[in-house]
């Protein structure tokens, strides 16, 4: 998944919930500029803030490391 894909998911979820970028930014306690950059797929956005925005939209993120998939978790 690339940053543009995440941006598209955020934009669609925001619109589905009838939120403006300003309202989402306020709910996630981030700047409107950050939401704008995130939706545009800017690759340098901060992961922690991105996760905060996703949580504000009710989007759960799960990551699966290659080591776990291959049974090498120690």
TrEMBL record:
PROSITE patterns noted in UniProt: HTH_CROC1
Regions annotated as coiled coil: none
Domain HTH cro/C1-type positions: 10-64
Pfam families per UniProt: HTH_3
Domain of life: Bacteria
Protein name per UniProt: Type II toxin-antitoxin system Y4mF family antitoxin
Protein source organism: Alcanivorax quisquiliarum
């Amino acid at each position: 998944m690339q940053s543009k894909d995440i941006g598209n998911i955020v934009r669609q979820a925001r619109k589905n919930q009838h939120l403006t970028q300003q309202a989402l930014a306020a709910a996630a306690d981030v700047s409107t500029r950050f939401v704008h950059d995130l939706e545009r797929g800017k690759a340098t956005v901060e992961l922690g803030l991105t996760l905060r925005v996703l949580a504000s939209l009710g989007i759960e993120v799960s990551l699966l490391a290659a080591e776990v998939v291959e049974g090498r978790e120690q």
